[in-house]
Fold this protein.
Amino acid sequence: MSIEMAEPPPVNYRSLFIFFGYLSLVAYFILQCCHTIYLRYRARQRENSWSSPRRQAQFFLFVLLAALSIGTTWYYMINLFLYSYRTWAASTEGQTYSAADVPLAVRMGLWLNKTYIFQEAWETVSATPTRFWWSGQIFGWTIGWSLFLAVGGRRYRIPSVWVYMLLGQAVSVSFAANLFFVAITVSRQPNERDVAFAWHPPLLYELVPVAVSLLITVAVPVFAYDKGFMLVLMSPHFLVFIPCLLGPGRSSSAPSQSQAHRNTWRYVTFMQWVAAASVVLQAYLTVLMIQYIGPDVPYAKVVQELLDTLYAHPACSSVSWDVIMCGVSALFWGLVHGFDPSQMVGGR
């Protein structure tokens, strides 16, 4: 006896609008950043005003790293979308409406309406200590990068630096970081007489978002699959925008060379403390991961578990490759500046 297929429901335009609106906004902000980079690149070429002979080569280096970052992370992000759709199609509702004769817009609307893709992705990458060993590092990179973004944006006069933070969270941190490195390489060398070298916000405005974000990071895997998970997850995502939105007021005056130097090293010291806190956090996650696998397990087995986790799920692969590309990009940023901390944070 054949079963007649139920009449398909109407198209869920709201879900489609949210999903494709998200993709459209991402594309728009990427183009906005690329437009700024293009204009500054043309200016450097026209005026032959590269700050050093190697600056143009660095430009192409970080363009390549940006391409590799978005390629590796979004290859798996697209796989995540396909994985999520196939999971929905295998459900009771999906088996009813995922047939080829059902309009694609109807199927996609039902899938997006019934699936919380990004919440499920973050719950997946936070589900076990081995998975959070990878994904937890993204929080550390993002928190430290928020300070670098704020300082670099002010000193190189890069407009709307909050857009790079948005892209870091909506696309990948490594891609947005490399895009920002590209923007720096095509910008004029900062002038130490600029007010940006004298001004810095009250420590409270920078310290509180960083400290709270680091503390919340520890709580993320604890709340995975709980009702309040998204609130816990999104809190540090919003806090890291604060440094990017701060800027000097009109009353700020130009600094002396010694003031500019002291302010640069103030940020260097601050970032070193954030890096140290991130290392401590990662050590804690490593202890949890080893306890989860088994304290008596050989180190080779631990490494194998981490490598297996890298490809355990498309969400794990996307986040893990973002972590890897963050490390590679930071290494090259250090190399091209001779690992001089003051140069790396936008000093002269």
Observations:
- Residues 30 and 159 are 13 Å apart (CA to CA).
- The chain is about 75% helix and 0% strand.
- Residues 53-73+124-344 form one domain.
